[in-house]
Amino acid sequence: MTSTDGVWAGARPATFGDVVQYSTLVAEFTSVSCVSAGHCTAVGNFRNAGGGREAMTMTAFRAQEDAPESSVPESSVPSLAALLALPEAVLLDASEVMVGSTVQVTVGGFTAGDTVRLVVASTPQVLGSGLADASGSVTLSGVIPVDLAPGDHTIAVIDAEGRGFRQTVTAFAASLPATGGSGSFSIGVMLIALGVAMTIAVRLRRERVS
């Protein structure tokens, strides 16, 4: 970045993406507007080689590439021991979860920018992941595996440093709707038998009358 009076040779003063740093010792932004992550325009001033301040505009500055969406690698799935070592907390309002249903948790206490994973165990499976915001909070959601065995399991949120929280939940399978198979068949047989009996009774009555 050059000017008529000097060259600003300081380090990059901002990251346009999840975090925007507005000032350093050599530069200050008065406004930053972004059309998308990494594609922004910043207006401010910088200190030139002579120690004075000059206006500047930075456009379409990308300090880091957006991470591509991908599934969580097997190596990043935490162990059951790591999950059970976490302190207990209330992550879900209900202590029972139905397999195949979607759960969502919002929890704080992490460092801004940390990658946090939502995990279910006894055999640890990552249901989702996300980045903690500037306040250290993150909202994660995921689907309880349909093949999760009924019984007690652990729902946990955990970051790369092994910090997080866990909750014991009970998984249950969705009950099948009643088809009325055998019961309807029995009722049908009873109605047919009753109809036959009434027909025979009417015939016998007619024969007696005649």
Structure explained in plain terms:
With 210 residues, the chain is α+β, with helices and mostly antiparallel strands. The protein folds into 2 domains: 1-66, no CATH class; 74-172, Macroglobulin (MG2) domain (Immunoglobulin-like, Sandwich), CATH 2.60.40. Helices cover 16% and strands 35% of the residues. The strands form 3 sheets. It has a 5-stranded mixed β-sheet with strand order 4-10-9-6-7. Strands 1-2-3 form a 3-stranded antiparallel β-sheet, with no helix packed on it. The N and C termini lie far apart (119 Å).
Features:
single chain; 210 residues; alpha+beta; Immunoglobulin-like; 2 domains; five-stranded mixed sheet; three-stranded antiparallel sheet; disordered N terminus
The proportion of residues in beta strands is: 25-35%
What kind of sheet is the major sheet?
A: 5 strands, mixed
Mean pLDDT figure: 74
Total number of helices: 2
Q: What is the domain tally?
A: 2
Strand order of the largest sheet: 4-10-9-6-7
**Named CATH topology of the largest domain:** Immunoglobulin-like
Helix percent reads 10-25%
What letter string, H or E per element, gives the SSE order? EEEHEEEEEEEH
- Runs in which pLDDT lies below 50 for 5 or more consecutive residues are 1-21, 63-72
**Straight-line N-to-C gap:** 119 Å
Class by alpha and beta content:
alpha+beta
CATH architecture tag of the largest domain: Sandwich
CA radius of gyration: 33 Å
Which term fits the overall shape? Answer: elongated
CATH class of the largest domain: Mainly Beta
CATH homologous superfamily annotation of the largest domain: Macroglobulin (MG2) domain
Number of strands: 10
